[in-house]
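Q: Give me the 3D complex with uridine-5'-diphosphate.
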Amino acid sequence: MTSIRYKRIVLKLSGEALSGTAGYGLDPAIVKSIAQQVKEVSELGVEVAVVVGGGNIWRGKVGSEMGMDRATADYMGMLATVMNSLALQDSLENIGIPTRVQTSIEMRQVAEPYIRRKAMRHLEKKRVVIFAGGTGNPYFSTDTTAALRAAEIEANVILMAKNNVDGVYNDDPVKNKDARKYTELSYLDILNEGLAVMDSTASSLCMDNNIPLIVFSITEEGNIKRVVQGENIGTIVRGKEK
Ligand code: UDP
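A: Here is the predicted complex, encoded as structure tokens.
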């Protein structure tokens, strides 16, 4: 039998991860490839919850820099995450994986509202649960949503899938060829050194609740499975100090 290190995971997909090289909108081939990778781990018996971002469609910060009311711009961002979530659900169901989307902002015609106990029941029944709509609050991010939902559903780990980098580096690896990849870090390292892994609200929440995070590349097919089976790819961030 294949060994599994993590029984229940939260997979954080940024909007960018769904847009491929275009950096904007959705690339159906990429969405399909991610769905296939999710299927692989789901079929191993891993309980998979996904938190989807919206940056490929809209970011609240951009709107507010253009003079919009920040909260309104953020609500637009949260709605963007719903579109991405529905695209991923569609792709997963096309390959036979039962999936539920739960939104933190109610829109009953398109998805279930977020109900923690119901989400946990779906996971126990091996349905993939997609958490859409972020936290439902402006001024937050979908990274914070991943931390919050992981704590709520008692996930063993957050897997942060990246499409442009394969872990956490001490400098931008695209601009600096000598940038060094970390294999292991603590949340305090991230906060103290200002490493661009996730925002400080999300990092603090993970640290306080001792939730490990693995940052890895999703562009190589099979990587979600590798991480779940305990292969050391990417960077692991631990709740407690190293
Ligand atoms: N957002 C928000 N509250 C949340 C989650 C998201 O206001 O709890 C808004 C925010 O404007 C953000 C946008 O939704 O810019 C898209 O989310 P995020 O930037 O986290 O997406 P990602 O970078 O992962 O694609």
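A quick observation: The pocket of uridine-5'-diphosphate is lined by residues 14-16, 53-55, 59-61, 74, 77-78, 80-81, 134-135, 137-138, 140-143, 145 (CB under 6 Å).
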